[in-house]
Amino acid sequence: MSRRRVLAAVFAAFAILLSACQGGTTSGTTGGTKVSGGDAKFAMPPNTTPNYIFLMEPPQFNSNIWGQFVELMWMQFYFFIDKDGNPNVDYTRSIANAPTFSADGLTATTTLKSWNWSDGQPITSRDVEFWMTMFAANKSAYGGYVPGQIPDNLTNVSYPDAHTVTFTFDKKYDPTWIIYNQLGQLGVMPQHAWDKTSAGGAIGDYDRSVNGAHAVWNFLNTQAQDLSTYTTNPLWKVTDGPWKLDSFDASTGHAVMVPNTSYSGPDKPALDKFEMMPYTSDTAEFNSLRAGELDYGYLPFQDLNQISYLTSHGYDVKPWFSFSNNYFVINFTNPKTGPLFKQLYIRQAMQRLVNQASYIKNILKGYGKPTYGPVPTTANQDYVSAAEKKDPYPYSATEAKNLLTSHGWTVNPNGTSTCSSPGTGSTQCGDGIASGAKLEFKMQYASGTLVASQEMQAFKSDASQVGMQIDLAEASPNDVFAISVPCDPASGNGCGWDLVYWGGPGWTYGLTDTYPEQGQIFLTNAGGNAGGYSDPTDDQLILDSWTSGLDALHKSNDYLAQNLPVIWMPLAPFQMSAISQHLHVAQGAAVITLPQGWYHTS
Amino acid sequence: MSRLRSLFRHQLGGRVGLVIVAFAILFSFAGPLIYHTDQVHTAIDQATLAPSAGHPLGTDEVGYDVLGRLMVGGQTSLEVGIAAALIATTFGVLWGAIAGFFGGLLDALMMRVVDSLVAIPALFLLVVLGTIITPSVPVLVLVVGGIAWLVPARLIRAETLSLRTREFVDAVRVMGGSEARIVLRHILPNAVGTVVVNATFQVADAILTVAALSFLGLGVPPPAANWGSMLSSGVDYTFAGYWWLIYPAGIAIVITVVAFNLIGDALRESLDVRLRV
Amino acid sequence: MTLYLVRRIGQSVVVIVFVLVVVFGLTRALPGGPARAILGPRATQVAVANFNHAYGLDQPLPVQFADYVGALGRGDLGFSYKRNQSVSTLIGEYLPVTLVLMLVSTVIAVGVAIPLGMVQAVRRNRVEDHLLTGILFVFYSMPVFWLGLILIVVFAGNLGWLPSGGPQGGIGTYAGQLSSLVLPIATLSLVTIALFSRYLRSAMIEALVQDYVRTARAKGASLNRVMLRHVLPNSLFSTITLLGLSIPYIFSGALIVEALFNYPGMGLLFWNAASSRDYPVVLGVTLVVALATVAGNLAADLVYAVVDPRIRYTAE
Q1: In sequence order, which residues have a C-beta less than 8 Å from that of residue C6 and are 6 or more positions away?
Q2: Interface confidence (ipTM) of the complex
Q3: What's the pTM value of the predicted model, to 2 decimals?
Q4: Tell me: the pLDDT tens digits for C267-311?
Q5: So what's the pLDDT on residue B3?
Q6: Secondary structure E strands in C87-167
Q7: How far is it, in rounded angstroms, from Cα A449 to Cα A447?
Q8: Taking CB atoms and an 8 Å limit, are B131 and A476 in contact across chains?
Q9: Least CA distance to A473: which residue of chain B?
Q10: Which residues of B touch A306 (CB under 8 A)?
Q11: B79/A contact by beta carbon, under 8 A
């Protein structure tokens, strides 16, 4: 299931027992005694409610709330918890145990724990096979599929017995990459309850044929379209996770979960009830928070001056960061401005004009993290190389100006700089840039957050110091996504934009890539490669990072940090969490929370 | 001109309106020459400051001086309002006059188009349009004008219908005048009163429509300012207590729109003799 | 009369078809189509192609339109791309919310505007008239969202008497959330009162100067009698006409109020759907609104025709 990716960064759950209330991942009074039972009300982000329950979801239904919803009910093949803001696999909470690899590195053998479904049936390799067949047959409809990766890179999967699964890959990949980014994406579905093609039909082995698998998927997808039956449909009652759905309001998205008494895993819930509260706006949520109606809510960023009010009314306020970087995208394929973007010095000048420190201080009020490269700066030691911990391009308008003048540009502060020395020499503008070419770009950014608007206005203002003219345009986030495609000369689609900013985060790891390689973002023709960045050296480095371990990962990410395929921006918190001082929480890095690890304190 | 002066002699409201409009124009266009502020370069370390000596109305969320922004914003709001009203009136009048004058199938066709466009509430249409086109001042003028022409079209059509049956039209035809000549030189001048009154109300409505569009995020992009977009950021700060981001721009809009409505009312009352009881 | 009715209905149908074509065309004119917008920036080309195929978006435009109209004929308004629910379900959930907002506001507006108009007509050009006209003028000239914003800041922010958002959930839950209905309804009512009373004031004044009224007055009838027996009934007809024609305006006002108060009605549904390129919902809501407007116009015209026989026989 694709959510695992998200899961990838999830869970501080039982990390609680291990690490108590250390660091910024949990809260609660240090002197409180644990109280068993009770309810907890959790605020969902505005206008985001669960609206899809089937595990093999189409991409448009994938949101962190979808993950929050289904991952409480269905366990994953490999379960990821959070350690200091990084995702780590936790085999005690995974259905599968750690894999063993064959000598040639091509085969990974995994054994399954003897856990049960909620109806008493055991979880077996047939359930994993069900997932694999459905995945292979329906991958184009499924949000977790990355072309070229699993299952495309498997030559064989076999099920020697009820608790063993063997995966054979087409070449020798790095074991961590396999565990985190390939096997870590797999889910487990109850074949004995779901392998049918109609509500009244019998269970069969339909999934073992391609047509049958299509039929099963269509059936399950259609069933998932009826939101009013989420609590009554027998299909959705076969679960294996710590929680089960007690009530669900289809029109508001309000969901109530209660503990699943037949859960086989180690982290059984202490609470009696976990409620997911829907809000149409963050103001509505904030009202509810101020009225004391929530145990775990959030403070809208524009109301940061209300922190003291909340603290004096029984809440702790802390930022909650996702395991992400942030950037705005450059269109290398734009016929007009593409040649300009292809010049590294122009990208470097642009990066030099992004004043990350100032944005963090003045716009994010100190609650932000700078981005120096594709890997989040807070990632664990192994992932971040020494080079990536430093800012390769600190803010400097002077440096930006020098870059331009040393490459044949006439800098015109507060106007528009022009190329005065065209050509391909080392002190000239570069290939494809004509004499008199203007340094003018259109930036389209997503509306809806004050932060994005402030950042872009500040960027425009700073860029004008060196005559880099940025024309701003605001559009809804979905419209901005729609624009962000590489240029298709046949249809003209994607050929008119220069720069886009989704408002952050740029890329959240843990969805399909817990191990932070860049195969889905910066590889030529990758799905997330909105700007059409294409660099053969980079492509090779990325492919190497799949097969050759940490050094290769560092090399690949270092190269990208220097080479600026996008322009890095500071990361804002996913939300400013406001947590009741009498609630001890377990929280994951990929913005999924683990209520099975929560408890009230007296 | 003298008729215009005499129009307002007994209309206090109209005179007040004119004074306010004159002030608004002076404030917006001459104001920045006296009170210099930088409305192009942000100063995010000075964002959302309360009013003080240096900033009489405080600063907004990227550090622009609010009073200065009111002036610059006024320029756009007034320009778009007046331009959109002119376009709407011109286009609407011609459409309505042609439909009303020629009647028959042409009239039916033209008015069905008007009816259809009226059936879609303007804002709904604009929201969908707003996802296709990126706004700039000319685009905004066209879009707002493109919605507003429906009202004058209907009005003028009704007027034309009643005017064309008058004898003077037959007289012109007998003398050999062309249809176009009749419309342009005889019908329209007699409808001028209605047109002018309507045009004034169009300006008022256009300013409100632009404000609404900016609130919905369909206004001109920063650093361009208009009163409506100044308010849309104010919405985010309802609990923060930054009253200077909420009241000034709104009051500016209300005063200006009231002024245009006053003028329109005064014109209408003067031109409509029957109401003098 | 029946001929008139038939012609008007025929024209209404033409209008609806025209509206459908325009909005359908507009949604298909958006560059890039809905796939990327709905699927997000991580979507692979495979996912995009699959989406387009699943929703028939790779078909030629006329085929898409024919399919859509065919589905309409079967009562199928389509399926939301993003919400995983059918458009009719969504409209069924959200329309009542907007109707509550619009109807209550309109009833309040009419209930207030008529007496106000009468007072202003009777006391025209006196102090009361000027005062009322002045105040209403100001409300009339206010942007709807600013009025709502001020009400929020004052009543929810500063005084804390009322919640700042609309009620969460469907109308079934309203009983427990009456206080959150106050501000949105107050906002929409105030602007509608201002709109109506402007019209009604002049309509009533115009009625007062009619010859037959002047005759009645000359014959000794009191102002009150004249108001009640002549002006008020005529104003009611005017009001009905006004109501029919104001439907688009009130819908637009509701859209803004819903966006401001995050009041989960059809306006907000439309706004979210348009921003996320959820075409089926956009088309569905537009259709409903157009139908309502056309029906409103038709009703207004009928009332007008019943009252004024001249209309039926001329110029249509």
Answers
A1: none
A2: 0.82
A3: 0.86
A4: 888 888 888 888 899 889 988 888 888 888 788 777 767 766 555
A5: 57
A6: none
A7: 6
A8: yes
A9: B221
A10: 239-240
A11: no
